[in-house]
Design brief:
alpha+beta, 5 domains, seven-stranded mixed sheet, six-stranded antiparallel sheet, 19 helices, 21 strands, globular, zinc ion binding, zinc-finger, MULE_transposase_dom, FHY3/FAR1
């Protein structure tokens, strides 16, 4: 949810799945009478009755063409509205918004106004675009004028703050339709304005110098919140702006991309961070498929800052998950003006808001103090881990020699116990004269966030593959984003890139479900997992099964008195050397069999290692216990990512489109149901009747 100037993360249950659903809380100190006005009248009419029927939701956003908005090419006589503007009277405020609308090319009307109870004194009003809402169809067969409403949400909310002084306390600038200056100038609101003062008498106590270009986009801004819950506006006064000049027309390209995405992508979400000077600082967006995918893959998320670390022209950051084939999947994107803690706090909160307020279990980032500060504030309960690739690059940058690389790899990958790792690290930095190096010292202080020996209790789902020279998933945009890629080039290829990713995932799903993997052994665990794992994950697991042939000598070394916990040592030959791996085996009536290996294979990869497999076989288990077959890797789980489809109908052969169509319609009923207790009651009764009818149909 976003409220006022703050983006924050409320408890899970309070969040709506619809990013466009706004809940306004009235002042508790006033007894207010709200008057909804859904007719064609443009002037405020206190006392009008609210509509009795729900709006018709069919066709919402289905028929709108991409925006061109030729009228936007010229500057506006009236600046865009912004929260904080003050006016000497209600008429001044109305005249200002009407004048702004006329300049831009749309008409306005009064959606609602309210007064004190038992009084005619107006206390507040909502002025909206004339395309707000939908007409109520009372007689389906009657002749009707052409529908002109599109569900547009552009509006300003006014409130009387003291005697005859009015303040704007909520603004929505985004329109979901093309502007029509000719039709707008013939509307009631503009005709009446021309007959009167034409809006020329507008007086504003405060006009924030907002960028003229920012006039049809959702504008959200957040204050930094310190550990004591106090807010700070310091970062908002920064002159640092997002540079969108590369490639020409950067802002316009971004604006058009958001417009088109919202028209064709029902659950598309974006947010913009503006400084006090009106400059664009940061941008975040996430598409519907990514939001749906997060419900399946929220356990591990990598925050990819490759473009920032390598000084790309495009200041792009990405939230990346790991899908059921072990491939990276995009969970959100951002463009940032700087790398301050405030910027990352804003970005993380914006992302968290649109994924139902549910933080990831594990959050992997580069080694950056600003990011660490933001993570501790926004994701305090998540396991924050550092990208091993980034850490190794930092270390090698200090001492880049072949002998140092070999020593570093041996220290990082070669030890299973904390004490051994710390002793080896100390010996290495003494040997290469790095004892007092600030970077090395800082990385060692944070070693529990990146060194494999400390991460055995952190589930990583293969996000970090702990093998020599391959420590992390590749840059998700590596196929088409390079150091000189402009914003225009990136956005032009964005949809195509995502379509290819999801098409490839669908093909992998098909291969996993239809093909029968070739078995390499007669081991029952291999045949068991071949039936349930996706093809790629099974191939990785199969390597562990094959590697059990290099393991031998299962020996019990310890048992806990009075409990069913046993420790075993499994020997594995690695070339000329033999290493011991300790495995703890527990049996419990409630939890069944539990196994823990010192190598941490299950936490790192999401499937059991060769050492545990050998021990389970040694103990006579013919199948791997079900708790070690993760649902995130199964090929029989249906994962309905929200599909993209435009103005066409629903494909009757595509269950993904069924889901999206039903979801959109249901959310429209939810939004209408929140208007009042009576609307809520009607919506609830309709839902109950619908569920009963669907249940009867399926029985």
């Amino acid at each position: 949810m976003m409220s006022g100037n703050n983006v924050y993360s409320p408890p899970d249950q309070s969040l709506s799945p619809n990013s466009n659903l706004c809940i306004t809380i009235e002042e508790s100190s006033e007894q207010l009478v709200v008057v909804e006005q859904d007719g064609d009248d443009d002037l405020p009419i206190v006392g009008a009755n609210p509509p009795d029927d729900l709006h018709d939701c069919d066709g919402l956003l289905d028929d709108f063409p991409p925006q061109s908005n030729e009228s936007e090419k010229c500057s506006l006589a009236s600046p865009p509205p912004a929260t904080g503007m003050e006016f000497d009277s209600y008429d001044d405020a109305y005249s200002y918004y009407n004048s702004y609308a006329r300049d831009l090319g749309f008409a306005i009307r009064v959606k609602s106004s309210w007064t004190k109870r038992n009084s005619k004194e107006k206390r507040g009003a909502v002025l909206c675009c004339n395309c707000e809402g939908f007409k109520t169809v009372k007689e389906p067969n009657s002749t009707r004028r052409k529908e002109t409403r599109t569900g547009c949400q552009a509006m300003i909310r006014l409130r009387l703050i003291e005697l005859d002084r009015w303040k704007v306390d909520e603004v929505k600038l985004e329109h979901n339709h093309s502007f029509d200056p000719e039709r707008a100038h013939n509307s009631k609101s503009h005709k009446k304005a021309c007959g009167g003062d034409g809006g020329g008498a507008t007086k504003r106590k405060h006009e924030p110098p907002l960028d003229v270009q920012v006039r049809t986009i959702k504008l959200y801004r957040t204050n930094a919140v310190d550990s004591n819950g106090e807010t700070s506006d310091d970062h908002l006064h920064s002159s640092k702006r997002l540079d969108l000049r590369g490639g020409g027309g950067g802002f316009r390209v971004l604006q058009d991309f958001f417009f088109q995405s919202q028209l064709t992508n029902p659950n598309f979400f974006y947010s913009m961070d503006l400084g006090d000077d009106g400059g664009l600082r940061n941008v975040f967006w996430i598409e519907s498929r990514a939001r749906a995918a997060y419900s399946h893959f929220s356990d591990v998320v990598v925050f990819d800052t490759t473009c920032l670390s390598n000084a790309y022209e495009l200041p792009l950051v990405a939230f990346v998950g790991i899908n059921h084939h072990g491939d990276p999947i995009l969970l959100g994107c951002g463009l940032v003006a700087d790398q301050t803690p405030e910027t990352y706090v804003w970005l993380f909160r914006a992302w968290l808001t649109c994924v139902s307020g549910r933080p990831p279990l594990t959050f992997v980032t580069e080694h950056c103090k600003s990011i660490q500060t933001a993570v501790s504030e926004v994701f305090p309960r998540a396991h924050h881990r550092l990208s091993l690739t980034h850490v190794l690059q930092c270390v090698v940058g200090v001492q880049d020699s072949e002998s140092f690389r070999m020593a570093l790899n041996r220290v990082v990958y070669g030890y299973l116990k904390v004490e051994e790792f710390e002793v080896a690290w100390e010996e290495m930095i003494i040997r290469f004269g790095l004892t007092n190096h600030e970077t090395i010292r800082g990385l060692f202080q944070d070693r529990e966030q990146w060194a494999p020996v400390y991460l055995k209790d952190t589930f990583l789902a293969g996000a970090l593959t702990f093998r020599l020279g391959n420590a992390a998933a590749p840059f998700i945009f590596s196929s088409y984003v390079h150091q000189q890629t402009s914003l225009r080039e990136f956005l032009e290829g964005y949809e195509s890139f995502l379509d290819k990713k999801y098409t490839n995932e669908a093909l992998c799903d098909l291969q996993s479900s239809k093909s029968i993997p070739e078995l390499k052994t007669t081991h029952p665990y291999e045949s068991q997992m071949a039936k349930v794992l996706t093809k790629e994950i099974f191939t990785r697991f199969q390597e562990e099964v094959v590697a059990t042939s290099s393991c031998s000598g299962v020996t019990q070394v310890h048992s806990s008195t009075g409990s069913a916990s046993f420790s075993y040592v499994v020997k594995e030959r690695e070339g000329e050397k033999v290493r011991d791996f300790e495995v703890v085996y527990e049996t419990n009536a409630a939890a069944g069999v539990r196994c823990f290996c010192v190598c941490g294979g299950f936490s790192f990869n999401g499937y059991q290692c060769r050492h545990v497999l050998l021990l389970l076989s040694h103990k006579g288990l013919e199948e791997i216990p079900s708790q070690y077959i993760l649902q995130r890797w199964r090929k029989d789980v249906k994962r309905l990512y929200v599909a993209d489809f435009g103005s066409g109908g629903v494909d009757v052969m595509n269950p993904v489109q069924w889901y999206e169509h039903l979801h959109r319609r249901a959310m429209q009923v939810v939004e209408q149901g929140m208007r009042s207790k009576e609307h809520c009651r009607v919506a609830w009764e309709a839902f109950k009747e619908c569920v009963n009818r669907v249940t009867e149909k399926s029985s």
